[in-house]
Amino acid sequence: MTSTVPASLTRTAETRPGLLHTAPGLAAVLLDMDGTLVDTEGFWWEAEAEVFAELGHTLDEAWRDVVVGGPMSRSAGYLIEVTGADITLPELTVLLNDRFEDRITRGVPLMPGADRLLAELADHRIPTALVSASHRRIIDRVLASLGPGRFDLSIAGDEVPRTKPHPDPYLLAARKLGADPARCAVVEDTATGVASAEAAGCRVVAVPSVAPIAPAEGRVVVRSLEEVDLAFLRSLITSMN
């Protein structure tokens, strides 16, 4: 599947002539959602803990590092396995998405620096995509808080054959933007997302939200999005040359 975001929810490259030629070096910026732009990683863990409590199981805090940033199939499947809960993966997926969606309808807090960064990218007409392991129904809810017009497109975890940590989501986003993955800067908060972006050949800015992420070749680790701006992202690409 490909991105199915309604046209009203995104800004489109077709309506912006020359969009892909705004900055030498940097072709596009691809951003993760949960824990990167919005402070919702805790929401997922709370939803998981509540659902499993109702199933008669208590989640170990140590499991949080295992499931953070992962696709629903992997995270939910892991929790079923370690708890022995009597529930199928499809049933659990529905329960978790329902519980999480209920939480975000009350408001979605943005991460420090997220609003300023998105505004800067939009002001400079930088091709931008939201790339998440969350399902489409969740992304569309969060887009309302992020400002849907700030993104040219979004890719959901249930719209690709293989989601993070596989490279497919970032490769698809780059292709739909007409950008070379090697000239795309990716902003991620988890090791799963970083692995996906790096496997796609992108340059990565890691902003760890729950578990630490070590610096590596082609990867920069920062403490907050407040340290990230357009000049910083452009420098990631120009440093390759």
Oligomer: single chain
The helicity comes to 25-40%
Derived from helix and strand composition plus strand pairing, the structural class reads alpha/beta
Order of helices and strands: EHHHHHEHEHEHEEH
Strand order of the largest sheet: 3-2-1-4-5-6
Report the portion of residues in β strands: 5-15%
Q: How would you summarize this macromolecular structure in one to three sentences?
A:
The protein has 241 residues and is of the alpha/beta class. Helix content is 39%, strand content 10%.
What does this structure look like?
The protein has 241 residues and is of the alpha/beta class. The chain has helices at residues 41-54, 64-67, 72-83, 89-104, 114-123, 136-146, 168-177, 191-199, 230-238, and strands at residues 28-31, 128-131, 153-155, 184-188, 203-206, 219-221. It has a six-stranded parallel β-sheet with strand order 3-2-1-4-5-6. Helix 8 (191-199) links the parallel strand 4 and strand 5. The chain is globular, with a radius of gyration of 17 Å.
SSE topology:
Elements: E1 28-31, H1 41-54, H2 64-67, H3 72-83, H4 89-104, H5 114-123, E2 128-131, H6 136-146, E3 153-155, H7 168-177, E4 184-188, H8 191-199, E5 203-206, E6 219-221, H9 230-238
Parallel strand pairs: 1-2, 1-4, 2-3, 4-5, 5-6
Keywords:
single chain; 241 residues; alpha/beta; six-stranded parallel sheet; 9 helices; disordered N terminus
